Amino acid sequence: MRRVSTPFRALSRPRGRLLVVLAVLGPGLIAANAGNDAGGIATYSSVGAKYGYDLLWMMVVITLSLVVVQEMAARMGVITGKGLADLIREEYGIRWALFATASVLVANLGICISEFVGIGAALGLAGVPTYVSVPIGAVAVWLLLVRGTYKVAERIFVIMTIPFFAYPIAAILAHPDWGDVGHAVVAPHVETSPAYLILFVATAGTTITPFMQLYLQSAVVERGLGPDDLGSERAEVISGSIFANVVASFIIIATAATLYLHGHHQVNDAADAAKALEPFAGRFAEALFAIGLLGASLLAAAILPVTAAYVIAETFGFERGISRSPREAPVFVGVVTVLVVVGAIVAMIPGVPVFRLLVGVQAVNGVLLPITLFFVWRLSASPDVMGSYRNGRIFNIVAGLTVIATSGLSLLLLAVIFAGI
Amino acid sequence: MPATDQRLLHLSLVLGSDLVGRAGARVGRVDDLLVRLGSDDYPPVTAVLATVAGNSVAVPGDAVADLDHGCVTLSTDRLDLRPFERRPDEVLLREDVLDRQLIDVDGARLRRANDIELARSDGWWRVVGVDVGPRGIFRRVVPRRFARRVGQSVVLDWSQLEPFTGHVPTVRLRAPHPKLARLHPAQLADLVEAAGHREGEEIIAAVHDDPELEADVFEELEAAHQREFLEERGDAEIASVLARMETDDAVDLLLSLDEPRRDPVIALLPAVQQRRVRALLGYDSATAGGLMSPDFVCVYGQATVEEALERVRQSAAAAETLELVYVMNTARRVHGGMPLADLVRADPTAPMGEIAPTPRVVRLDADLEEVARMMTDFDLTVVGVVDEEQRLQGVVTVDDVLELVLPRGWRRTFTLGDG
Which of A374, A377, A397 minimizes the C-alpha distance to A385? Predict the structure, then answer.
């Protein structure tokens, strides 16, 4: 028989610092790192290969923006006990909630496909054919989401962020000139060429994605956090966001130190980047890069369906079936199944124009992000919703500027995409 | 639903309707309906909020002749342009109820109001039900001329619903929520856990007037939620909840409080409860000593069956801890345990020491596994817990053990976020 203890008993007798730390890790870390998905890694690789360290400075700016946005979402979840879609419906009405839901569904399905492509590509480097790796990945993700309890799923999500440590190691193996790296971070190099701007905007877009706020807030609620957990959850969100962006920076450094320096400026996808690393940094770096890609793709492939299920359940009011876990609810199972199955199947079809698909997904996200961020900003500033926990005056201005700037970049990306197609 | 002499109106199709004067001229647009909660089973519409010439006005119910889809008719041509003012028990249907959660008392679950149904009864328009089905949503997003053709889907009668009003400025802290009394404490606890923080507080506040019920609800709440709702209260209030709880549950709750708060709260407990709580706090919570409840009945061997039964009658202990009545010798060592049913059937004059069989007991430091195994092997619902001297210190009941050994996935709780 297992030895079981109830949560408060566990709380009253902490068994060690490590466990305490692990228990705190959760939605914030997961949400931010799910942003470093297959598409993200592809973008960061392109940035590093094309511009070397030149764009590293903006990771600092993006990190700050991400922290501001994620903190608001987490605070709302902790204080109200409701998901973002719940609040949008209650405060702004059914139409906005439906619009957000539809966009999330389309966007998440699209990104989900790209994650399964990422899984196939990562294992493809080890010689596993797509029609083997993708179905296995899909079944694993589905079982975890539908069969696992929230707590188990969350623990595994946290564990799935461990492969991200492969990138710092890969970057170190690539022997970058750390002086150049430091210089690039503190002394921004700005260009006005369209290619530079596009990559800039794409990086911002892939680092701050709507599903990250939606997932974070709902997961905080499902975790059962209350106002007295605000401090620890805030710390968790901030450290998780910083970790995610440090990882992203190391991807840029790894590719910059090898591909860029050796004149290999064109990277088409993440697997490409992994392969390209080999001649310069050895097989080990390539393998690490692939492991990171696999972990990232699996994590995001799990988070995206969950987020879609949360949002649909909240908008339509399905989730509050009392005496029943949301994971047992038919709506939850249905949404997760559709996203995982469709995502995996499309990813396996030979000759699917993955790149065009990703561009389309980016466009949907580009429309959705300003809306999500606007709601996050306004709702977290609302005294009716947040009471005394609403945004402070100065924070609210900073948050507003962040939202406007991020939304502006997102819309700019949209314009670029349409101009490009 | 009450007898109605007319059609059912959907709130979504009344909102945005023309406000029409007695002569038939359009004077404004309907924005919201004000209803009075309270004594009526079906809340009557007390005012219509409308925009007239760019101003927001409240048209009192007696100036409204009739409501209909697309058209609200006034009974007067003279509009009193008073600014809108809400009385304490009034809520706005669109602003405060639509799209928000309600408690479905019959289903013991939360629902979201997709649309609100109105009907005429006792001479005036009242809220009679809430549409919680998909068509209620559909009706609100399609153009108006199609919306009229969307039938109703799942409509719950208002008599089984209790709206949350904590977000309504004037109603705050005043809503009595009488229908919640129909729910079991465990159901109320489930609702508190599933609802948002403010809604959860509202449910707790609604049961606050009944201290026994409140304590029962707290017993059923998960630790995280217990802490969430207790932490904001004063020590005396926490103590009054703990005093009414089973001792072992009270201790668990106490442990979930921050350390510095525990002693002041314990100090405010009634003497008996205080002693029991302090005794339990001394034991490791993963052992029989930590699991046990100190409430039990134990009589001397010389006592008769009738005397033992009298002790049971006078005991305030929970029923499950009394399944076995224990017998001790003059050195207070326990040597007998009589099932309550056997006790009732036994000769009332027989001495307990002679008829009670030897009970199964565990030591204070026995772990959960040992307790569970003994209960399983001997089909017990109660196990006595003894110290080194074989003196009975408490009893572990099957419900306390089951709670801990049940595989996590089997527990039907909302978050499953425990363990």
Answer: A377
User: Which of A277-281, B170-174, B304-308 has the largest mean confidence?
Assistant: B304-308
Given CB atoms, is B114 within the 8 Å cutoff of chain A?
yes
Closest-CA residue of chain B to A78: B197
Do B415 and A13 make contact, defined as CB atoms within 8 angstroms?
no
d(CA A29, CA B388): 49
Separation of alpha carbons A56 and A200, rounded Å: 10
Cα distances (angstroms) measured from residue B41 to each of A353, B67, B68, B89, B162: 60, 20, 22, 14, 11
3 state DSSP class of A320: coil
B residues 205..224 contacting A (CB < 8 A):
222-224
Q: Do A89 and B255 touch (CB under 8 A)?
A: no
Query: How many Å apart are CA B320 and CA B381, to the nearest integer?
Result: 8
* Model pTM score: 0.78
Model pLDDT, residue B312? 92
A13/B416 touch (CB, cutoff 8 Å), yes or no:
no
ipTM surpasses 0.85? no
Residue A384 sits at the chain B interface (C-beta within 8 Å): yes
Q: Are the beta carbons of B99 and A316 separated by less than 8 Å?
A: no
pLDDT digit string, tens, across residues B83-103? 777 777 888 999 889 999 899
| Residue B417 forms contact with A (CB below 8 Å) | yes
